[in-house]
Every structure is written in C-alpha cells, then in structure tokens.
Amino acid sequence: MRSRLVCAVALAVVIVSKQTSSASNDPRVVQPTGSFLGKTYGGWSAAWWQWAFSFPSNHDPLTGTADCSAGQSGKVWFLGTLGGAVVPTVTLSEATASYTRQCTVPRKTWLFLPVINSEQSMIESCWWGSGSSPAIGACDPTVASLQADAKGFQDLYENMSVEVDGVPIAQIDPKTGAPFRVQSPEFTLGPLPPNNRLKASFDIPRTADQTTVAAADGVYVMLKPLPPGGHTVHLRGGFVAVSMFQFMLDYTYQLTVDGGDACSAAKLKAIATKESGLLGCAAKATAKGSSAKLAACEASVTGRFEKAFAAAGSCAGDATICETGAEACRSSVVAVLTDVLPSSCESQKQKAAGNLAKAELRCYARAASSGVPVNPICLSKAADHLAQALTTAGTCPDGGAPQTEIEMACVHGMVTANEGGLVTDLCQANTTTTSSTIPSTTTTTSSVTTTTSPPCDLNNDYPTCGGSCPAGQSCTATPAAGVCSCQ
Q1: What are the percentages of helix, strand and coil residues in the chain, rounded to 5?
Q2: CA gap 367, 106 in Å, rounded
Q3: What would the 3-class secondary structure string for 70-129 be?
Q4: What is the mean pLDDT of residues 338-364?
Q5: Higher-scoring residue by pLDDT: 130, 422
Q6: What is the rounded CA–CA span in Å between residue 408 and residue 386?
Q7: I need a surface site. Which of 12, 211, 291, 307 has the fewest CB within 10 A?
Q8: Segments making up each domain of the chain, as ranges
Q9: Is 363 strand, coil or helix?
C-alpha cells in the first residue's frame, strides 16, 4: 500500500451552556451547501492544500515549526496538523499520532480546517507509479485519476469525531464524514519551496520550484468566528484493520481568540505621538537654523509621552526602552536628512517622517485595540502620504529611500507583529547594531547604520554627544538643529 500524507486538525470551542449538539445543522459551523465568501467547501479545500504546500519543512505551521499565523490573510484562516505517513504497525497505539497545537487567532475570523483529508498530485502519482525518480513531466496522469486516488485514500477513513469543549459536532457522520466530505476541483500546487513536504516526507527529488496539478478529497469544517478567549477542540479520525495497516489521528488545538488590547494600543499611540513630536521639534529648528527653542519643545513632547504611557496601564512595552527607541528614531532620521541649515526642504521631510511613523504606528494601534491583523491598506496610505510630502518638499538629501530608513528606525523596532499581522509585542530591546543598505537615486548605494543600544544622542551636558556609530564615523553635534548624529 502506498504511503500517504494525512492531515487533520482539532479545535475546541468554549460553549457557555451545557447543551449537546444534535445531528441537525450545527450553528457553530458554516454548512457545506452553496458557497461562502466566494468559494464552495471544495474550493476552500483546494485553497487549504495550496496553503499547506507553500511552506518549507523548517518553517511549517502544520508541524509546529512556524506559528499558526504563517501564510494567513483575510477573513478565513486555515488550521491543520500534519499527521504523518501511513505505515504498517502492530498495535493501534503505535499507529496513533497525537499532537497539541497552540494558536492565537484574530477576532471575527472564520476557521477552515480538515478533520481528515487526502490529496494526490501529478508529481506524487508519477513517483509512486514508477517506484524510481522520473523527471518531472515524464508521465501525465489525468485529473480524473488524481481525484480517484485521493478518493481511494479517503474512503479508508472512519472513526471521525470533533468535540468542541466536550460538545461533539454530532452532525458529522463518524463513518463517512457526511455531510462535510467534499472533493476539490483541479488545482495547482507551487511553485514548491525548497525542502518542501514532498521532499521532506517522501524524499521525492527535483521538486523545488516546481508546480503540479493536484486534486483532493476530505472532511472539512468551516467554524464561525469564536468569541474572544480560550478555546480547546479535540479530534480523532483514521482507519484500523486495513490489511496490516492502521492509523489514527488524535489532536488538540488550544486557541486564544484575540479580544483586543487597549493598553498596547494606547502605548503605541503614545510612542507615535512622541516620535512625530520629536521630529516636529527638529523640523522647526531645521527650518529656522536655530536650536534655541528645541530643548523646551522636546521637554513638552516627553512630558506628554510619560503621562500617556503611564495612563495606558500594565502590558507589554517597557517605558524606558520605548522612550529610548523613540529618541533613536529621531536621531536616525535626522542623520539621513542632512542639508545645509536652515533648510525648508529638510524641515518638511523631517516632519513628513514623523507623520509616517505616527500614521503607521496608529495602524498597529487600531489593530491591537480590535484584536485583528494590521490593515495593509492603512499602511499603504501612510506610505503614499509620505511620498507626496517628499515630492512637495523638493530636492535635498534623504538617503534615496527614506521610507525604508524611517520604518526601520521608527516603526519596526517599536512594534512586533506575527506573520498574520497580529500585534504581539512592543519595544523589544535591541542590543545589536542594525545596518541597512539604502539604494540611492543613482546607480550607487549608500550605507546608513543606526543603533539603539545606546544610540548616538545628546548627553546631559549638551552639546557633548555620546553613543555608538559605524567605524570611521563619530557621534557629533549639529548645534543649529540641536541633535547628535553619526558623521
């Protein structure tokens, strides 16, 4: 019997009442009739397999080597767990694959997951059919034969159950999976990544960067959005007494549905206001060519930051680290925007940089507040506004790619999001020097290096400066602007 990959998932939902789900339509799931968000269950099953095959084995949410947020987007997230290969065993306990996965998902997100499923692709069909290593394209199975293979594997599976916090989805027939068993339409896998599942599990060679037609068969459930909080779901499924082969999947998915974090949102807003405020102070000094009022301006910005940050409450994000990061943002931007002072052009670009940092951090703040992924449209609009402001400012030095430098210095160090766009941390301490090569407006490039531990910045006895700089540069004061930078 051919060895096959088996995937499954288990999910559990907290049900407030103690009811037992009947065999009628379960209100917790989208029914497998018609379409949902533009796809039938069969169409979603094809999309699930495309997602599942998009990862290298060392960064794969199905095996737990990547966070469950990897590759996720939109209103529907995929969950799953790689069961393993079907092999001959002596006892059922030897054939049982048990896994527990943890996952944080956004609010208002549907979850599409397989109870147990199978697929067949042209690459696999050719490999198993020849028993050797045929060149890709050396055989040409039909889509109908791929569908028949997937169905043949799926026909073996029974003993299927999904329990949501101890309450079963009784609508699923334990022997057949009906009415949630579906066949996919023809779909394409790939281009496959290096060390993909076919290579890692079956050592099928020459699969990296290849595409292949495939078909699938399986039992799936589309769960409606779960309420914020913790949820646990348990699943079993497989087959026994098939010749000398038997296989059983036993899974638990421990979910946390993000309910929003007002504290982190408030801190991000405070950081955003401080960064834009400090750069606004620098912009005024740059425009006038005088730092006479700079200290008072920055003191006012810092005072407002400290009050807002303290009022946010207790959550991720250390005040000292966040404040140091905001000041490093200011220093890094000023180091890139170097012009003869006074300079209206440089002043406008410094202000635009502050506006970008503020706008993007506020995008993350809104996401954190609602417990949803950051909206890429929000980030895109902020970038568009920066581009317009830079054009309006005119021609003066800006490093060639100021957006990259601003985001690295002012945004990425302030907020951490997982691969699905959910905010997970604030102001992580950075103890290394971060370098970025920024393309110039010509064919050459310029290298700008910034540091946050400690950054080149003002000492208490200004105009003395202190902090780290790249080799060959020193931390030097620019009196007219009242800042220190690596020169």
Answers
A1: 35, 25, 40
A2: 10
A3: CCCCCCEEECCEEEEECCECCCCCCCEEEEEEEEEECCCCEEEEEEEEEEEEHHHHHHHH
A4: 94
A5: 422
A6: 15
A7: 307
A8: 5-257, 262-447
A9: helix
